[in-house]
Amino acid sequence: MKEIVPTPPPLVHNAHAEIRDLFARYVVPSYGRFDLALSHGSGSEVWDVSGRRYLDLGGGIAVCSLGHANSEITEALVEQSRKLVHVSNLYYQAPQGNLAERLVRLIGPGRVFFCNSGAEANEGLYKAARKFGHDEGRFEILTAWNSFHGRTLGGISATGQEKVKKGFEPLVPGFRHIPFNDLAAATEAISPATVAILIEGIQGEGGITPATAEYLLGLRRLCDERRLLLLVDGVQCGHFRSGEFQSFQRILSGVPGAEGFLPDGIAMAKSLGGGFPMGAFWLRETAHGVRFGEILGPGTHGTTYGGTPLGCAVALRILDVVERDGLAAHVRATGDWLHGRLEALVREFPTVARGARGLGFMQGIELQPREGIPGMAGSDKAPSMQAVLRLHEAGVLTIPSGNQIVRLLPALNIRRTELEEGVERIAAVLRSFA
Ligand SMILES: *Cc1c(COP(=O)(O)O)cnc(C)c1O
Questions:
Q1: How far apart are the C-alpha atoms of 133 and 376, rounded to whole Å?
Q2: Cα dihedral sign, 13-14-20-24
Q3: CA triplet 359, 331, 62: central angle to 5 degrees?
Q4: I want to staple 293 with a disulfide (CB 3.0 to 4.6 A). Which of 102, 113, 262, 285 is the partner?
């Protein structure tokens, strides 16, 4: 008898498996996803569909600048959506003008174009650079090895990592890569066709590598001498992540000879909208005697959704909160403290970790090669992946960067007590591998 009675359905239905199944059937499998299905969050805490809590030190990859379910972002969304969500760029509206003014005040004299993502912000910089060099036959943009600039065709052409290009050739012509933080190599690479140099202020996907002050100042000098544009991809390292609005402002703070330093263009996205999809690029008012801020005249560039009243209202509210709550100073002080704590972990577990790197709330722990780590040698997964997975078990979300680095990109308003909890759990995980 017993054998023919079907087993009853489980009492708790498995929401996690159901969601995973939908993805397996219907979503383009372009992402390697972790086996976690998240349902809701609050600040720097997030819960999965079975009710398990995680401390979020990944911040949605440097996007959730005010954490999850921030009530002031909700308020801005609700208030603005009652007035206007979208009107197109055929008309004027106050939020876009106000946000452009705020960004110019945070950077320097110039103009802002609004778009929807980081890759798109960089695309705008490529177009502005090509327009600048067009009549002289210059079009080539030098970018760094290990850089990341997005997944569009232009983005993968600009990105200095073979793995993003593979299988999508032919690439967009006019990009060449140079070693990062190597001024001599940049000088040597310039050809008669070169028009611009594009770098991240702190390389993110490439493993949390800040540009040095000498490199930034040297590139500025080089670009001035050779009539090139200096472009900065601030998509990940911008928006106060370093403790200043742009990472070059933090890197160059107090450095002799850095007064008045400005690049000619800056790409922004990620934290700008706090999770609302938004990108922007800033162009310097004048570059090499040209009114560069006005180089993209009527009809030369556009995007339907760019700078909607809704997105701009959210971005403005985030800037208000950052300013009101002194979050830039919080990121500087707490980021320095966090960096010190990570360095202490490296000293405590030298067989597992070999370095801490980064600025502000863009920090990385560099792990040893897999073969040397006692608790990792048995698996063929990269050390960064093994550490991130074990951190999930310990209730902490972090982000792998390449094979060796675990990235921390927490919300700008995360509390020091929360980071303290995170550091303790990271310590326990490093200990488990030692
Ligand atoms: C994430 C990122 C991009 C791409 O941004 P998307 O919004 O994914 O298009 C570009 N540059 C850097 C430095 C990034 O970190």
A1: 51
A2: negative
A3: 70
A4: 285
List, edge to edge, every strand of the sheet that includes 396-397. 38-42, 45-48, 53-56, 396-397
**pTM, two decimal places:** 0.96
Three-class DSSP category at 47: strand
Cβ atoms within 10 Å of 393's Cβ, excluding its own: 10
DSSP secondary-structure letter at 371? G
- Ligand 1 pocket residue status of 159, Cβ below 6 Å: no
Interior CA angle at 110 toward 310 and 249, to 5°? Answer: 90
- In short, whether 233's Cβ falls inside 6 Å of ligand 1 is yes
Q: Is 275 in the pocket of ligand 1 (CB under 6 A)?
A: no
How far is it, in rounded angstroms, from Cα 368 to Cα 254? 34
Atom number in ligand 1 closest to CA 122: 10
pLDDT 10s digits, 17-52: 999 999 999 999 999 999 999 999 999 999 999 999
Domains observed in the chain: 15-63+326-433 (3.90.1150.10), 72-324 (3.40.640.10)
List pLDDT tens digits, range 98-156.
999 999 999 999 999 999 999 999 999 999 999 999 999 999 999 999 999 999 999 99
Atom 6 in ligand 1: residue holding the nearest Cα: 118
Given a contact cutoff of 8 angstroms between Cβ atoms, the answer to whether 375 and 433 are in contact is: yes
pLDDT attached to residue 13: 67
